[in-house]
């Protein structure tokens, strides 16, 4: 009988690994695949990336600059995240869009956790998959604008 308990524990661990691989595939296909392939499409994308670039060049991490002038229209957290990404990966489209992509992953996890907590594991899984495959989620996770990061913090605070 102890062998059966050991076998079921191994099976459960294997199923969790398959589930993790499935989520990694979903994230890769929906979010990270060709993340930095196109140039900045939205004018705001280029605008925010330029502000972050100037912030890095000037060393002014507290006040974003645009054309050398302070531009405090939006919270600076997004520029910090984008700045860290640009320090690691260089001043590329991929680096500019990475904070939004990671925020989308956080939203998938928060949706899954909330569904699992309130209802069941299956509801959490399916809710997260449905959220991940909404075209608006895909679109906002692939552009360097504030929306996905803001939503991740807002929804993360509720879960």
Structure report:
It is built from seven helices and two strands, in the order H-H-E-E-H-H-H-H-H. The chain is mainly α and 159 residues long. It has one domain. It has a two-stranded antiparallel ribbon. Helix 2 crosses helix 3, helix 4 packs antiparallel against helix 5 and helix 4 packs across helix 6.
Q: Which helices and strands occur, and which strands form pairs?
A:
Blueprint: H1 2-32, H2 43-58, E1 65-66, E2 69-70, H3 77-89, H4 93-118, H5 121-132, H6 135-141, H7 147-158
Antiparallel strand pairs: 1-2
Overview features:
single chain, 159 residues, mainly alpha, two-stranded antiparallel sheet, 7 helices
Largest sheet: 2 strands, antiparallel
**How many domain units?**
1
**How many whole angstroms does the radius of gyration measure?**
19 Å
C-alpha end-to-end distance: 40 Å
Poorly predicted residue ranges: none
β-sheet strand percentage: under 5%
Pairing-aware structural class of the strands and helices? mainly alpha
Total count of strands: 2
Shape field: elongated
Order of helices and strands: HHEEHHHHH
> Number of DSSP helices?
7
In short:
The protein has 159 residues and is an all-alpha fold. The chain has seven helices and two strands.
